[in-house]
Prior knowledge:
Chain A: GO terms for molecular function: ciliary neurotrophic factor receptor binding; cytokine activity; growth factor activity. The structure holds 2 protein chains of 2 kinds. By secondary structure, chain A is mainly alpha-helical.
Amino acid sequence: MAxxxxxxxxxxxxxxxxxxxxxxxxxxxxxxxxxxxxxxRQGLDASASVAAVEGVPVAAVERWDEQTxxxxxxxxxxxxxxxxxxxxxxxxxHREQLGEADTALGRALAAVLLQVSAFAYHLxxxxxxxxxxPPSEEGSVPPPVPHLGLFERKLRGLGVLRELAQxxxxxxxxxxxxxxxxxxxxxxxxxxxxx
Amino acid sequence: xxxxQYERVGADVTMKCGSMDWDAAVTxxxxxxxxxxxxxxxxxxxxxxxxxxxxxxxxxxxxxxxHLKYQTYLRVGTPxxxxxxxxxxxxxxxxxxxSWHLPTPTYIPNSFNISVIHGTKEMVCEKDVYPxxxxxxxxxxxxxxxxxxxxxxxxxxxxxxxxTLTFDEVAIVKPDPPESVVAKPVxxxxxxxxxxxxxxxxxxxxxxxxxxFFLRYRPLxxxxxxxxxxxxxxxxxxxxxxxGKEYIIQxxxxxxDIGTWSDWSVAVHxxxxxxxxxxxxxxxxxxxxxxxxxxxxxxxxxxxxxxxxAVVGSGAVxxxxxxxxVLAAYGVLFI
Lengths: 195, 335
């Protein structure tokens, strides 16, 4: 495995970051469309306030500009792995509700789920460039599905998608930070463990 | 004792002469001028349906001794109407500012209080020095889905009013317009204009938060704008300019991912490069003018009006050029 600061690793990192930025942009655009479909099909008010949803990774972060590259990647990866599970749960619930009917909402959910999985994999590749590699998912238990009524589930779904849209913006910003050329050495800033 | 008294426009005001009895003989003045007795009820001064012009210093003097018994400064005004509040982030991701004003003046001093709440957290909005009605907030968190709630309360001696704005972090992002817009002709290219600009200096980190740009341009003689959206770079070459026409050009900016477009930049004017006119002399010059870079809109140099053997003199040459330009304009209009 190439050392983190070798020229080929730097090139690969930049390439992965650019592609990641494009993936995140497309994902965000699709999540926004999904949000519109979701709100419409679930009969919700688009401006409804949703309290913080349990088990949903929150994109909000303090001192974002001080984060190291590793922190950014780890937080992003943890988030998208969680969204992968959450979206799969939403899709499952949707199918339970409507049977195997191939609805526009079902298809949109499935498409975003695919992009979330792809993005998580992309983040794992970026972490591979570090000697650490990505944390393993083995043994991690998916969060239990809370027992909620139908309307509460719909609101929860709204919260999940809104937070995902926010993450997609954050990921774009994070990847741009990562792609920044370093001031002196050939290694990008913030790739070291310590801030 | 002198003090200030605030009253609403249209109110009826009764002023007592300090501790003097109702039936005491007194003289009232307004800004030094005696007030007619018809406005008095005993020693009380009655001002009915006051208007703004009645603001001023009112003094009451004891009848015989002319001792000053009471003085007040009357300020006639109105309670505040609902203030107009606006919040905007032109320096994302550093923070945002809110600014406000009253739709109509109150004519008396007002104080403003602003509160900014993010979820359950109250944030500090640092006020600009008076009389600027503006305050600044630093973002403590980024990428939050929790909305910000800004409440502005305006208070004066006659009442109070307030307004509230609720928004999320990205909705208020609007950069300042691009700066230092420059448009230059390109030598030997009659249809090109090179435009360049800079990121607004208020945008703190264009590398991590890149801006995209919108360019619009039109010849002065036409109303319709051409538009170009540019996802990166701070320059662009217009390649379809009408030869010889003066252009007006503006640029706007927007964060690549969030928020709204800035206002248009200051307009710049430029005219594409044109070939230098041939040297004007009093002798007939028989020249076959050909130019490889001449656009298709330029008429051939010889026209019916300007035969090669035409009358010499700068006046005639001027007619030739004018005719040439007229025909060029026609050519432009018939594209």
